[in-house]
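[Solved] Which block belongs to which protein?

Original post:
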Amino acid sequence: MNLKALRQRDAELRGEIAKATKARAAIGEAALAEKRALTDPEREAFLKAGKDIEALEAQLADTATLLAAAEAANEAERAYRGATADADAQTAAAAATHLNTPTAGCGACAPCNARNSL
């Protein structure tokens, strides 16, 4: 999934969790308002809502992991500056300049010493 789709899925899951949590709370609040115990169907619905919320939270955690990875990849892509100059080309240019100087060269390397002995 791309970054936009993962962000959308994250928002949708958060909305579903909020909705399910409110629905579950409404079941308990109705029984409390009437000062009675939950009926069997209410208890089943309350427990089922709890399991549904746990499943949604697990999906949200998975999505959050994927979203973090996608955001990191996006940031790395944005920060990529491209390849710098080729080190081999830089070394070759430095060597060519070094050996072709009108002075005696460095005197420390074999090519300069060979040229100086001429």
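(Second protein starts here: sequence line, then its structure tokens.)
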Amino acid sequence: MAEQVIMGSYAAHKEFVASVLWLDYKNELLAWIESVRDELETETDPSRIRHLQGVVEACRNFLALPRQILEIMEAQGGKQ
């Protein structure tokens, strides 16, 4: 795996997480997750169920990115 290069500063990432921009993305992703969960309740096709579960996982992974980036920076001593 290639070495991770984080371009933004720790402060910039903290600011982004606290921003209304991130709140907009977060709210949209949470709405997608809820919509897919609703669809999963009635879906019977196994391949479609796996696909929808993958969509939920991808949304959750995206929601976790800002926190993960901050944790990486903290672990690398990049907190400034």
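Accepted answer:
You had them paired correctly. Confirming on the second one: DSSP finds three helices and no strands in the chain.
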